[in-house]
Design brief:
Length: 394
């Protein structure tokens, strides 16, 4: 009776997690429909349900692309960017400085060739199709594709108009096909130049696995991305990024916790800040964790561990001091790979790890502590440790 009751409880918890995920997905679709309806009534000045103006971060990339097209990339990292953004989207209550490296500007340049609203929906459709294609090309089953696209992090990053979905899929594809298709895998990993935080552990994995073709392909694509960014941004744009751009990024990182965006953070640094650690101590703690991530990633890829893909994705999130809930979409996509027949409690835990990021902002608002790195650490533990809870198979 006890084993049967245990299986029943575990399956009930898994079903509850999946049901919560379906509800959250429906709410995400509803939010997109509401956004489209508000745009048809109020144009670009509508008050977005979650971002206070239309199209959230997508508008930031679009404005950056407009400035790049007009040869003003060097002004992105100063007040000119905020002034132009405020004129285009007048109801924004406050603007982040532009802190992305110029390597993203070729993408922003292309985005700005489209009208703002129509471009958002076209690019969003492209991102969804690209993620699905990359995950399937990585030989992941359809349940992984669905888990990745329907997860709260994916829905949130899609709502924002961020590139986290496709960058995470590029990382998954590159790591999954590193041995079978090293040239293509390396090229995909080289494209992560647009968001370098996704590629923090890529050199470690490639060198530990001794995939020299992947290394050469990745360096070639990285060089091409940097060359394109130099054409778009020029020397002045890169100097501005390493000057005021770097200062602005540091200011964003070091703001007192909690602010606004930190509630959706995923980094160890912000978790330590939420626990009352000072900036220096939090950076030291993050540095120690990052070094540990490098060492563990090296061991996993040098030994060819079977679980190295989900583990490396988790380590990538833990290694960066700058990360958000939306970056966990890639982790949600591989959670079904870690399920085990008969391991009912393990599978229930994976289900709740898939849905839990949606509840992080509410938890932070009530407790004042950011728990997201602990969720990532739990995924890491399940991926690298033996199955510690396995029920008897009926």
């Amino acid at each position: 009776m006890v084993p049967c009751l245990s299986r029943f409880c575990a399956r009930g918890l898994l079903a509850a997690a999946l049901a919560a995920g379906v509800v959250l997905f429906a709410l995400g679709v509803r939010a997109q429909i509401l956004r489209a309806w508000l745009y048809t009534r109020h144009g670009l000045g509508f008050a977005d349900p979650y971002c206070t103006t239309g199209y959230c971060d997508y508008g930031m990339f679009w404005v950056a692309g407009v400035m790049a097209r007009h040869g003003q990339a060097n002004l992105l990292y100063g007040p000119h960017y905020a002034a132009l953004a405020a004129r285009i989207l007048p109801y924004k209550t406050g603007w982040w400085p532009f802190v992305y490296p110029p390597s993203i500007l070729p993408v922003a340049y292309g985005v700005a060739l489209l009208p703002l609203a129509a471009g958002y929906y076209l690019v969003s459709a492209g991102l969804v199709l690209a993620q699905a294609w990359l995950l399937r090309a990585a030989r992941l089953p359809w349940r992984c594709v669905v888990a990745g696209l329907a997860s709260f992090p994916a829905m949130w990053t899609l709502y924002l108009g961020q590139l986290g979905m496709v960058c995470g899929a590029l990382l998954v594809y590159g790591l999954a096909r590193l041995h079978a298709r090293p040239g293509r895998a390396g090229a995909a990993l080289g494209l992560l130049a647009v968001k370098p935080q996704y590629a923090l552990l890529v050199p470690v994995a490639v060198l530990a696995a001794r995939r020299w073709r992947a290394c050469a392909a990745g360096v070639a694509v990285l060089g091409l991305c940097l060359l394109l960014s130099w054409v778009v941004a020029g020397k002045a744009g890169w100097l501005a990024y390493f000057g005021p751009g770097r200062a602005a990024l540091r200011a964003l990182l070091e703001r007192p916790f909690p602010g606004t965006y930190e509630m959706m953070g995923s980094s160890v640094f912000w978790m330590l800040r939420s626990l009352g650690w000072g900036v220096g101590a939090a950076f030291a703690g993050q540095g120690a964790v990052s070094l540990g991530c490098v060492a563990l990633c090296w061991v996993l890829w040098r030994r060819g561990a079977e679980n190295r893909l989900p583990a490396t994705l988790a380590l990538t999130l833990l290694a960066s001091p700058y990360g958000f809930t939306g970056d966990m979409a890639m982790l949600c996509a591989v959670l079904p790979l870690m399920a085990r027949p008969g391991a009912h409690w393990r599978n229930a835990a994976l289900g709740w790890l898939w849905v839990a990021p949606a509840f992080v902002p509410g938890f932070v608002a009530r407790a004042g502590v950011l728990p997201t790195p602990l969720l990532v650490l739990a995924v890491l533990g399940l991926s690298v440790a033996p199955v510690f809870t396995r029920d008897a198979v009926a």
